[in-house]
Every structure is written in structure tokens, then in C-alpha cells.
Sequence to fold (618 residues):
Amino acid sequence: MAKYVFGVDIGGTTVKMGFLDIQGNLIDKWEIPTRKENGGENILPDVARSIEEKLTKENIDKAEVAGIGVGVPGPVDGAGVVHRAVNLGWGEFNVSEKLTSLTGIKSMAGNDANVAALGEMWKGGGQGYKNMVMVTLGTGVGGGIIIDGKMLAGSTGAGGEIGHIHIDDDETRTCGCGNKGCLEQYASATGISYLATVHKKSWSGATVLKDDLSAKAVFDGVKAGDALCKEIAEDFGEKLGKGLAVIASVVNPEAFVIGGGVSKAGEVLMGYIRPSFEKYVFHGAKGAKLLLATLGNDAGMYGAAKLVL
Amino acid sequence: MAKYVFGVDIGGTTVKMGFLDIQGNLIDKWEIPTRKENGGENILPDVARSIEEKLTKENIDKAEVAGIGVGVPGPVDGAGVVHRAVNLGWGEFNVSEKLTSLTGIKSMAGNDANVAALGEMWKGGGQGYKNMVMVTLGTGVGGGIIIDGKMLAGSTGAGGEIGHIHIDDDETRTCGCGNKGCLEQYASATGISYLATVHKKSWSGATVLKDDLSAKAVFDGVKAGDALCKEIAEDFGEKLGKGLAVIASVVNPEAFVIGGGVSKAGEVLMGYIRPSFEKYVFHGAKGAKLLLATLGNDAGMYGAAKLVL
Fold:
């Protein structure tokens, strides 16, 4: 009987490895470097070797392992085929099949943001919800959608790419994706710094906001009662709430789980997002909860493990 | 062995009844009136009686019937619970359970737009696609989302309510839902008439467009090469393409299937929708096809049958 599972979260610098029991209790976690040279050809063999070493060390038979789940920083479709992961040097191939053949253990791959959503549903801020959307506010804006407890991969692995929904017709700056007016341009850490720059320019009153226009500085200012910081947060909340409202009208989730670096600001965020969300959302989808993620950088590891169970 | 299935599409005036084999071949279809008095208490008993009569007449045993699928004009969650269907006078109850107990035959209910999407996937314009979005351009704009061959009902039955995604910040008119700037305000038959009014006001050149500002008149004008009608169609396409782009970034479908009265204009529509879709969509979701629905008013009947199979 299978008792264990591996959750693997492949990043551009390191691979996070998790060894869990099938109830989702973390037994051990460690990291190995991501070797990107030669089109990233060593990455999966390195993962396989690290798993073999762990099993040998713990004296565990492969028959006791339910599987290996893998999160990949790029589009991965429902069959486990990655469609280019530029950060790893990967082109198109079936990650699930490759890792299965390397290890002899059933393996399944998904996009890292989608897998993180699964992790938050299983063991994090989204526990108890089977229909939820994870929103990761980091350098960019990532997303993962869970429908009836399962990841929505999308037909070409681009499901949940909510950072690139169009939010603002008047934008002149170009987003990293090539479009203009994407949610990511306002709601990411970078986006919040941009909003801070814009609002600070036309601000004549006193403010605690000096040279540091980071998202952290803005929300620290909000907590200190700074009027400029509140104005910036309102603009951020207006844009993000509008985006979440659109998503809610499409997939009608029970909850949004907000994670990523920006979410470290905590509950104060919700006070800025909710009014805009309620203004724009279709009444039938209004009940969605706004929750904070709780697993931080471990969400992908947990979610990858859940993916294969 | 079950050989047959019933597909029932409940509308505000009539109930469309379909009797099919489990391969989806239509054997017979008919209509019964929708009796809305007393909170619509007679509707399901009428459906049950009509089915019993059919089985008696055809001398078919209930054991030969795989089930009864029902499309309802209101939000229906994954368990078959309707959350108010104002057009029928219904409050909240479990439609699937109720019809099962009335007939002794397994029954399943879904929202009518979602069920129509399933119908187009099974036997209509979306055949061959397991991840698709049906867009119904009628008096309003409805939608149905299919993920991995299954209907996305949403946590409170509001999945696929794409007519109410926010599209335009500058709108001053209020949508039927209470919000401002919903997709439905521009892309429905009513919305197109509104756009026609606006563009005609500032038009000084010649035009075939006289008093009739219906969606049909506009697209007839487009086909006749009328410059004003083309301008109206461009505005319509800009708004609808933007909406579909947002949906594509969220659920990443293989195809959109366009149905409803407006879709009778035919392939000419796509030439106006596609440029805007490609301008706004995330590159990873760009490949989605734009197709025409083919089942017309029978989509709901087919989809309801498919729902229970």
C-alpha cells in the first residue's frame, strides 16, 4: 500500500523537493540546484536521482510511493506536456512521461501557479473549498483555478493566466506579454510601485513615502495611516477587484486565495479589494470569499504532491 | 440495457422535450406549455407526465431509459439545486431530486446556457472539442463553459455568466443586472441596436440603415457593404473580442462557439470579433477557434440529454 508521495516544485534557480505522507503531512523537504545548461536536460534526471537517494536512505520501497508530482514554471497541459518553459531552457515534451520513465514511479506535472492553487486548497488558505482561484501577487501576477477539486490546466496549459486579463483601455505602457492594460501592470509588486510613482508625482501633502516605492513600503504606509499610501492602495484595489470580479463571473468560485509577496501585507489588502470586487461582480457570483494564502513558498510542493494523489 | 434518454429544455413559455437514443440521435421532439402559476409548481409534474405518456405510447420500459436531463433558465449548481428561476416562479430547490422522485428515472439539471454549451459540444458546432465556451448572443448574452467535456456549473450556479463581465469603464447606462459596462450591453441583439443608435446619430454619409436598427438590419447592411453598418459591427467586434480574450486568459479553451439570434448573421461576425480578440488575448491562449453554433434552439435539448449520460 502506497504511504508516501513526493512534491517537486521546479524553479529557475532551485528545485524544492518535498517528501510527504499521503495525508499531506510533510516528512522532509530540501532543495537541489536547477541546472539549466544544455536546454535544462539535467533537471529531471537530477530530480530522479535525489528521489532515489531519499528512498535508499529511508529504506523505502518504490511500491510504497503513490507518485511524484511536479510543478513547472511554464504552460503545462492536462496530459503533462510542457509548452516551453523559458526559465528552464525547456521546449515541448511530456514531463509526466519523462519523469515516470526515469524513476519507475507514476509522475504528473502541472504549471507551477496552478499546482500552488491545489496546494492552498489542500493544506493552506483554501481548505474546505473545491471551487477556488488562487491569485499570486509577486513580481508578476499568476493564477491557478480549481474546479470541483481539480486544476484547470487549459487546452494549451494557459488556464488561470489571470495576470494578463485586460483591465484598462487607457494604458500606454506595454506589459511583458506584449499587450497593454494587463492586470499584472497594476496588481503585481512591480505594478504597485508603478502606481506609487504615478500618485506620488501629483501628491503635494505630507507622506511617509520617500525613495522606497515598493509594495511593502506602500502597505506599511497604509498601516501607519498615510494618506498617499491609502490613495495608491485604493487604485490597486480598484484594478484588482475589477479583475477578480470578471474571473468570478466566468468561473463562479467559492473563494479567492491571495498569495505571493504582496500578500504579506495581510488582511489590510482585502479592505481595498472587496469594495471594487463588489462593485463590478455579477450578483450571482458575489458571495466569493477573499482569503489569504498560508503556505508561502511551500504551496507548490504541497500542490504537486496532491496532483498525483 | 439503457438505450434512450430524454432532453428537456424548460423555457418561460414552452418546455422543449426531446426523446433521443444514447448515441444522440433525435427520435422525436415536442413541446408542452410552461405553467408558471403558483410558483411554477406544475412544471416538473407536467414534464414527468409527458415522459410517462411517451413511454407508454412507445411501449418502452423505464429500465431502457438512461435518464432525464433538464435545462433550467436560472442558476443551477453542480448538485442540481436551482437558486431562483424568476421566469418560472421557482425559488430554491433540488430539481434533479424532484424530477427523479416524480419519474423514478435518474434525472439531472443544469443551467440552460450551460446545458446548451454541452449540446453544441456533443452534436453541434463544438464537436471534437472538450474545452470550449459557448457564447449565446440573443436578447442578452449568455454563456456556458465546458472543461474536459464537463459543464462548469460554478459554486452557486453562476458559472459562465459571461454577459456580465465588465468591459467598459465609461458606461453610464445601467445593465439589467444592476452594474454598468457589462458585455451584454454591447454584444446582445439589444446591445447592437444601442450601438447602432449611437453611431447613426453622428453619421452624416449615406446608409441603408433607416428606422430598423435591429442586429439583423445592421449585419444585412454589413453584407451589402454599408459603411455605417461596418462601423457599428467594428464597435460590436471590439467589445465582444475583448470579452472573449479575457475569458480565454482565464479558462484557455480550444474554441468559442457563437450561437443565439445574432449568430444568424453567420461567418461575417468572425471578421469583426477576431481582430479584437487577437489584440487583447494572452499569447498562450491565442489559438482558440471562433466557430458558429449549429443546433439553434435544439442545443438545450441535446445538451440536457448529454448531461445525464
